[in-house]
Every structure is written in C-alpha cells, then in structure tokens.
Amino acid sequence: MLVRARGVRVRHETAESWRPDGVDLDVRPGEVVLLLGPSGCGKSTLSLALGDLVPRSVPADLEGTVVLGPAPDGGPLRVGMVFQDPDAQVVTGTVFDEVCFGPENLCLPVDEIERTAHAALAAVGLTGRERDDPGVLSGGGRQRLALACALALRPRLLVLDEPTANLDPHASVELYRLVDRLRRDPSGELGVLVVEHELDDVVEIADRVVVLDGAGRPVTDGGTTRVFREEHELLAGLGVWLPTAVQLARRLSAAGVRFDPPPVTLGELADGLAGRPDVRPVAASPGRVAATTTPATGKIGTPATGKIDGEDPASPIVRARDLTVVPGRGREPVLRDVSLTVAAGEILAVAGVNGAGKTTLAQALAGVRPPPPGTVDVAGLDVGRAGPRAVAAVVAFVFQNPEHQFLAPTVADELAHGLRVRHTEPDEVDQRVAAALDRFGLGRYRGHSPWLLSHGEKRRLSVASALITGPRVLVLDEPTFGQDRARATELMALLSELNADGTTVVMVSHDLQLVAEHAGQLAVLADGRLLAHGPTGELLTDDRLLAAAGLRPPPLRRLAGALAGRNPAWARVYRTADLPGPGRDPAGNGPVLRTDASAGPPREPGTGPASGPTGPRTGPAAGPAGEPGTGPGR
C-alpha cells in the first residue's frame, strides 16, 4: 500500500465545517484512483493532506490518519504533486532550473540531476524550452512544467489536482498516456490519485472512483466502470461531471434508447449506436440556452449602457486590425497580424492549442495587456490609447487564474470594489453584492478572505466580480475552469442570459464541446495567427481545419465521425441538441438533420434562417434536464 487514509477530516482557518469529513482512501502501486465531488467539497484539501502539506505547510486542523508506505529501499516514500494553479509551485527563473530544483534538494549527483531533468522535460513535450523563463510559457506550458517537476522527483505516489485544466485536448490525451505508461512500469510501482473534471481521457486509465458529497463525506468507492454504469444518477444529483458517453446515453435514454450494458467511454457508445439504425440525429432549433437557475432577487449587473436605440445588433462592437503583440524586446511575436470583428450581442469563442496566443488575444481585447494604439477598438474606444478606467467602463476581463484579480480582504469587498471605484451609491452596491452572493452560491463566505476559498469558489467570485459592474463586453479566459457540472451549468446559463440582454461575450476555452453548445462564432488561432473565424458549426465540422490547428474534435464530433459511415446525417452533428432527447423519439421526432454542406447549423423548418454577421449563426442548446450541452469535453 502506498497510502492509507482513515477518517481524514480537515478544517481550514476561519472555516466552520470540516471538508473533507471522514474520508477513507487507499492507493496501491500501479493503481490510478479518480477523486470526484462538487466544488468546495475538499478534494484539493484531501490531496494536500495525502502529500503531508496539511497541516505542515497549510494551516488547518487535521483529524484521522494518513500513513505513507515506505519506499522499496526502506527510505521515505516520495510524493509528487501537481497543483491546480501551476504558478503556485514555480520558484526559479528558467524552465531547466525549475525541473532541477527538486532533485537538487535531494542532494543527487549533478549528472543524475541533469539527466533526470532532461528526461522529465522530454516526457511532457518541453524539450527546447530549457532556457525560457517559466513566465513566458502559456498556462498549459506551465502546467506541463509542473508535471515535469513532479516526475523529476521520481515519486512513488503522484497526486494530480486538475492536471488538464490548462491543457489543450491533444496535450490532455498525451498526459494521461504518459501517466498510464508510468504506472505500468514495473520498476517504478507508481500509484496515482487524480482530481479531475475532464473525465473522457482519465476514465480510460482509472481503476477506481472515489466520490465525495457536497459536505466532503465519501458516498461511493468502486471500480470505474461499475460506478459510472450503476451510480450515474447519484453523481448527477451531486452536480459532478460525468464522462461524455454517460451524459449522452442519459439524454438518449430520455428518448427511449436503451443500452445493455450502459456505455462509459465514447467507443462503447459508438459501438452501441452502430447497431441502432433507428437512432438518427435530429434538427435542433438554434435558439439560446434557457436559464436553469432561479432568478436572483436583485440585479447583479446589466450592460452599463444597455442596448443603444438604433444600434445595429450585427454591427461590430469589438474590432481588431492587424494586431501584433511582442512580449518583449528581441522576442518573437505571440500574435501576428490578427484581424477580426465581434458583433454586438455575439458570443465568440477563441480556440487553439497551448501557446497559440488565445490568452494574449483576450487580454489585448480587454486592455489587460495594452495593444498597440489603433489596433483594438471596443465600443468606439481605442483600447491602446484610452486609460484603464475608460476601458474598464466598457469591457471586463476574467483571468484564467482567479487569484490574479483579487484585491480586497473579503469576498463581499471584492465584489463591491469595482462598484465603489465607479462611485456607485452605497445602497446600490449593497443590493448588487447581495444578489451576486446569492446567485453564485457565495453567501456563506461573505466575510471570508477570497484566498481561502476553494478553486471552484474562487472562479465563481472572479466571474461575479467582473459581471457586477455591467460591462457591455465581457472577456473570459477559461470561464468554467475548476467548476463542477452544476456550477458550470449555472455560469453558462447566466452568460447566456446576459448575452440575451445585450452583453457581448468573448471566451477562451479548450473545451470545444462547451464551445459547440454555447458560442455562435468561433475564432481559431495557430502559432499566433488567426486561422479561421466564422460560425461555430461550420468550423467544428471542418475536420481539415481542426487538424491544421492541431485541435482534437470535441467528443460529440468524434462520436459522429464513427457513425457517419452508416448515415451521412451524422457528419453534421456537433452539439447535444442534434441528438434525440427528452420529447424526441429515437428516430428524430421532427425533421431529419440536413446534410448539405452549405446549409450551416441545423434549424427547424419555418423558423427562417438564423443569420449572424458573417454567416449562419448558432446558439447554445440545452441538454437534458436543463444541462447546457454535455459539459467539459476534449
């Protein structure tokens, strides 16, 4: 046994409850254990406790026992950890020094340290970046660096906390292939504990699943296949993510499609549907996702100027012209000659592999990284020339790492900060703060420090802080990062509501299934250049484009590709609403999906064309029981 935890419960400083609370957990050599649970249930805290960081480095009360088995040589067992936030574990000035830092502290010989560091960097695809400052790597690059640092310690137990959150889909696949390879190496006897929301890849290698409820108590522990086949109702009720195949099977089940046994992986679902010619894709209305949350009692924020009388909703509110961004003197541009427009009231997604320039583009559009004068215009304002306050009045930005935008000592003060800077009346500030606390499930943390929230709670706070001032344009970098299914669903429903009221949304996302369900327009970047910009449905069904961008098709597209040979209608499927579901029979009670390539995204007859500024417009589509789409998918 590598680690044996019994009755583990942790209570952080200022916290009233224990999370996790009474957890028993074993990890054996060669085993991959997947830890699931709603945001804030204590998954990350449990991971820290297993790595002996609670309470040694993180002040907290710890009850129960955590016993680490000895290493084969009789010495202490090494635990390698990769945190949710890779920036939290970067301590040196170069990539190579960062990977060497751990082995150096073990007093290993220099030649062994260098050999180990080079091997770890090669394993995560960072060969050639040895002399780079970690700060110039993309978020995904820093995530891979953190993994390399953990591997360089040659641990027996590897703890991965949301390891793919900043990775593009291909990098996610490669990471879990690497983990699978390492745990199967008989010389290493590696055990792995994974906290993850993106489940499609990890379920292929996970042996067991341990699930905590919202209070941090264990509710199930069993084999991966058994848990997802037999207890998916329990997991859905807890609001945690399910593998895409399980979510789609649940939707199809509502339309009368039964599987025996129920599928857990996309391959199993494809095999099950291949023998069901009666199950056909349907034409879904391209309407917006319906709100699935109870409206707040007060307003959080509405667009500062609202919809201007006489304003053409298709006119560009955001415009970039020949935008080039160079991170420093002597460096290569991270963006090259990018030109695009975003129509007022649009939802634009920005996609691309790690290092493609997505975050840089988003920051330039929002003025967080001031663009060259004359290259970015938002609501008639030259972002490169205007002052920060003028820019912040029309566009708000939500960072990939929520901690990068915290300024105040309490959650309530963090929400109120932007309003107070604008000299909003105190009563209005109180009203909006109360509404935001309620809407984002943060009421009990009103007086807490933002830094003591869970990562999922920090993400909700960062989004709420941006929305509360009512910007006309909202730019988000990985908005659902670290969120469980329930909270991500609420967040995307809220963004859809704000968009329907006139807020223009630009979001960076690695989750192409989320993009498929919610974004009307898509911009694809590759090597700092704009490769394509157009209707989401057209771009996501263009396999050659995705290949050129190095992007992996989203899960539903991969499923559709496996089925298109028997029915060409599947070739145009890319979002959940294209499948039979509640109110649809398996044969597609309604029009069969159109298959002509020029038709654009499917629509119901009689609704007329749904036109966007550059072509057919697609909107978000609701999944079963109010779920907007299938959730995170690679």
Automatic annotation (TrEMBL):
User: Low complexity bias located where?
Assistant: 605-625
Any one Gene Ontology MF annotation carried by this entry is: ATPase-coupled transmembrane transporter activity
The annotated region (Disordered) lies at 270-314, 577-634
- The record's EC number reads 3.6.3.-
Stored Pfam families = ABC_tran
Q: What CDD domains does the entry give?
A: ABC_cobalt_CbiO_domain1
Keyword Nucleus attached: no
Question: Which Gene3D superfamilies does the UniProt entry name for this protein?
Answer: P-loop containing nucleotide triphosphate hydrolases
Ranges where the ABC transporter domain occurs: 3-239, 318-552
Enzyme class, UniProt record, top EC level: hydrolase
GO cellular component labels? ATP-binding cassette (ABC) transporter complex
The organism's superkingdom is given as Bacteria
Q: Which family is it part of?
A: Belongs to the ABC transporter superfamily.
Q: What is this protein called?
A: Putative HMP/thiamine import ATP-binding protein YkoD
Q: Which organism is it from?
A: Pseudonocardia autotrophica (Amycolata autotrophica)
Taxonomic lineage is:
Bacteria, Bacillati, Actinomycetota, Actinomycetes, Pseudonocardiales
